[in-house]
Amino acid sequence: GLLRGDRARHYLCRFWNWVAWLQYGLLAAGLAFWAAYNAYIAAIEFQPSYPVLLDLEAPARSFATDPRGELALLDFAIKMRRLAELKNLWTALSCGSILLFVMRFLQMLDFQPRMSLITRTLRLASVDLGHYLTLFCIIFVGYATIGTVLLGERLKQFQTFGDACAALFMILMAWEPQTMYLTMSAVTNQAKIGATAVTNQ
User: Fold this and answer.
1) By CB neighbour count within 10 A (0-12 exposed, 13-18 middle, 19+ buried), where does 144 fall?
2) Does residue 104 share a domain with residue 147?
3) d(C-alpha 120, C-alpha 139), whole Å
């Protein structure tokens, strides 16, 4: 019993075991969200059109709406928003699972001195990196807060704290918003729309 308890304690004290179980959890959650996403799509009854206006050729009150058509359109919009949320959650879980898998794969290369250069270097510099990242986060949050307070009403990039953080990160990485951030955002949205259309078909 004592030996079994020592083994369990030793297993739980290892950092990479927690990383492995976290990766398994994210993978299972991603599969669950993907199944829920497809089940939600299969349950939606799409209509050929959503006629909202009561009479397109009305001489007066041309914008009078049909309550049933308007309700169907609003229900369709709510369901599409829900689909987008599920797809975004699935994307985030999948990216996290892949990142943890790469970390575990690099950790498995410790048997070879040259191939374990990255993990050994990060392990030796982990304490210094922790202090540096703490100071960096404090300074970064301070600049983002100042940018939101001083420039929020003048510049669109600093209207909210999240937008300010994104703008500061692009400035730090020397990214051009028009050629990098907006282009990649458009490509990501197009990929999501395409995946949704293929799944629906």
Assistant:
1) buried
2) no
3) 28
- At residue 98, the pLDDT reads 92
Q: Provide the number of structural domains found in the chain.
A: 2
Task: Give this prediction's pTM.
Answer: 0.62
Q: What is the pLDDT of residue 197?
A: 41
**Residue 26 CB-density burial (10 A; 0-12 exposed, 13-18 middle, 19+ buried):** buried
d(CA 26, CA 24): 6
Query: Residue 4's domain spans which residues?
Result: 1-55+64-124
Q: What does the pLDDT read at residue 148?
A: 92
The whole-number average pLDDT for the span 136-158 is 90
Taking alpha carbons only, the member of 110, 90, 95 closest to residue 16 is: 110
